[in-house]
């Protein structure tokens, strides 16, 4: 069996022409806190050669609030 060919390493070039922007926000249901508080947006990368979607950003305004985090959930089995 022949080994897999080596993948070429990524070359980091000049990043001065790049800009990262959020796309349109979408609201949704958060399965953790059971509320309509989930926000999702696509991450758009603007380059001199065009536009690319590079990922998705998601956040819940209840679960991910650093100022007042949710208490730990506990199930009493007694």
- Global morphology: flat
Strand composition percent: 35-45%
**How many individual β-strands?**
4
Mean pLDDT: 80
SSE class: mainly beta
Spatial extent as radius of gyration: 20 Å
- Helix-strand pattern, N to C? EEEE
Q: Low-confidence runs (pLDDT<50, min 5 residues)? A: none
Mind describing the biggest β-sheet? 4 strands, antiparallel
Number of helical regions: 0
- Helicity, as a percent range: under 10%
The N- and C-terminal alpha carbons lie at a distance of 58 Å
Description of the molecule:
The chain is mainly β and about 80 residues long. The chain has a domain at about 20-60. It is about 0% helix and about 40% strand. The protein has no helices and 4 strands. The chain has strands spanning about 20, 25-30, 35-45, 50-60. Strands 1, 2, 3 and 4 form a 4-stranded antiparallel sheet that branches. The protein is flat. The N and C termini lie far apart (about 60 Å).
Task: Summarize, please.
The protein has 78 residues and is an all-beta fold. The protein is 0% helix and 42% strand. The chain is flat and about 60 Å long.
Q: Mind sketching the topology for me?
A:
Elements: E1 19-22, E2 26-30, E3 35-47, E4 50-60
Antiparallel strand pairs: 1-3, 2-3, 3-4
Question: Which tags fit this structure?
Answer:
4 strands, 78 residues, mainly beta, 0% helix, flat, 42% strand
